[in-house]
Amino acid sequence: MQIKVVNYKDTVDGIAAQYGIPVERLIYDNQIPYPYRLAIGQALLISEEERAVRPENIRVNGYAYTYISPWVLEQTLPFLTELSVFSYGFTAEGALVEPPLPADWMIGGAKAAGVMPLLTLTPFGADGKFNNYLIHAVVSNPEAGETLINNLLRVMKEYGYQGLDIDFEYIMAEDRDLFTEFVREVTDALHAEGYRVSIALAPKTSANQPGLLYEGKDYRALGEIVDAALLMTYEWGYKYGPPMAVAPLNMVRRVVEYAVTEIPPEKLYLGIPNYGYDWSLPFVRGETAAKTIGNVEAVQIAVAHGAVIQFDETARSPYFYYWENGVTHEVWFEDVRSLTAKFDLIREYHLAGAGYWNIMQYFRANWLLLSGTF
Q1: Separation CA 51–CA 4 (nearest Å)
Q2: What is the pLDDT of residues 233-284, one digit of tens each?
Q3: Model pLDDT for residues 3-12, shown as the tens digit of each residue
């Protein structure tokens, strides 16, 4: 596989001829819609043949809401090892709160494709946001914790889940050790029934890193307990923050460098964002909210506005500017160049695999590149 960066003279016919591949394959692999216009600076995946096969050398996890398009899920499952169904919440008393839409069709589809369905547990409150009061209520109350564990086992058996993913965020510093003990109790109970347990970890760069995202998670202790840990190496550029790369490689590398000193690399998954953001400028903190966009959509925005896609060599991420209705926009997203850099990091540190947040939008070039790399 090769990567071609489009210049101002390029056309799909010319590029296909240059590399000796059918123009239909170039269009299909890169999801180029009719009339097949290209953006200057766009990165294209050049593949002689489609490799719709699961990577052999790493594990691949993808998070999905229960309202995912059946077509998108069907297209993505051949590349996954695990499907994390997002998300089950819970009450302060330990009752499980199921997703708003049924997940049984996703579980069945995953199993039919040889993919392990995981129940994702999150401390969502009534507003659908992470609630650290719920975390405190369960980890500090043995009775509530036991009730939650029993409910997890019941639901996992009933629906046919094969593992659990624990995604607790904004854990209070005073709950750090209680949370670690809760994870130990959950893991012991699930291991006894043959289930796999993984955990999502905020992207720390040191053991004592300050901040609500970081202080409640003990990398070393948690890494000793669970079977796998996902490093949430994304959201540096986020909806309510200033424009920047979602997963700048220089920052992602710092997280990995620290993580492997605390957790065996064969347990670690590198988090990969499958989306980008479109910011209106000027950015005003507390007022500006970026629009979440897909990676294919980002390129089409550039095409529609005649924008030139640039590439930040430090962040190893593509970006561009465009103007609409008198407003300047700044867009950061992922392409096959930024993904190649992340895949190289997985290989460099011999990590267990990749974890995608999330797989709701299909980015074919990513999956073909992943399949061809590993």
Answers
A1: 18
A2: 999 999 999 999 999 999 999 999 999 999 999 999 999 999 999 999 999 9
A3: 999 999 999 9
- Tell me which residue of 339, 346, 332 sits closest to 364, measured CA to CA: 339
Q: Which tokens is 58 given? A: 């790493």
Which tokens is 24 given? 């239909």
- Distance, in Å, from the CA atom of 41 to the CA atom of 71, rounded to the nearest integer, reads 30
Phi, psi dihedrals of residue 292, rounded to the nearest 5°: -80, 130
Residues found in the chain: 374
- Catalytic sites, residue numbers: 169
Q: How far apart (Å, rounded) are the C-alpha atoms in residues 130 and 167?
A: 10
3-state secondary structure of 110: helix
Give the Cβ contact number of residue 128 at 10 Å: 11
Q: Are 340 and 3 in contact (CB under 8 A)?
A: yes
Phi, psi of 192, rounded to the nearest 5 degrees: -60, -25
Lookup: tokens for 257: 């460098």
| Among 164, 69, 79, residue whose Cα is nearest residue 113 | 79
Token duo for residue 337 = 């160049």
Alpha-carbon span 74 to 55, nearest angstrom: 17
Residues in Cβ contact with 373 at an 8 Å cutoff, skipping those fewer than 6 apart = 1, 55, 340, 343, 347
Q: pTM to 2 decimals?
A: 0.97
